[in-house]
Amino acid sequence: MNADVTSGTLLQSLLAGFDGRPAKAPDDAKRRFAEPLSAVDAAKQLVDKAKRAADISLDRAKAAPKPHEITNPVFVALFDAHQRDREVLFAAMRALDAARLAVKGQ
Question: Could you tell me the superkingdom of the organism this chain comes from (predicted)?
């Protein structure tokens, strides 16, 4: 295990194929021709997508080999990815608040 961690192969295998986006739903083609979303609805969808990505990255960090501390490079990399996903979530939440305020101001 230590050889895998120090060589980075374990980290690469944990992160392989993960881009933080959920898989496409089969009905995506139908959605392309649906009515346009309001700014609030679009912002809500971004919040939902960002929340899913943050949840997934948190689960990956929790599943990292112990110890869950700064001396473990696998945990640090996965936790950093989660921190980035959280920042995206917070930005999406701020955008949702701004869209709601804009609708109220009309």
Answer: Bacteria
Cis upstream peptide for 26 (omega within 30°): no
**In this predicted structure, what is the pLDDT of residue 37?**
72
The whole-model pTM stands at: 0.64
Do 65 and 74 contact (CB within 8 A), yes or no?
A: yes
Q: What is the pLDDT of residues 45-56, one digit of tens each?
A: 999 999 999 999
Provide the residue type at 4 as one letter. D
pLDDT recorded at residue 1: 45
Q: Treating both helix axes as pointing N-terminal to C-terminal, what angle do 39-62 and 73-104 enclose, rounded to 10 degrees? A: 160
User: For tokens 């490079």, what's the residue?
Assistant: 73
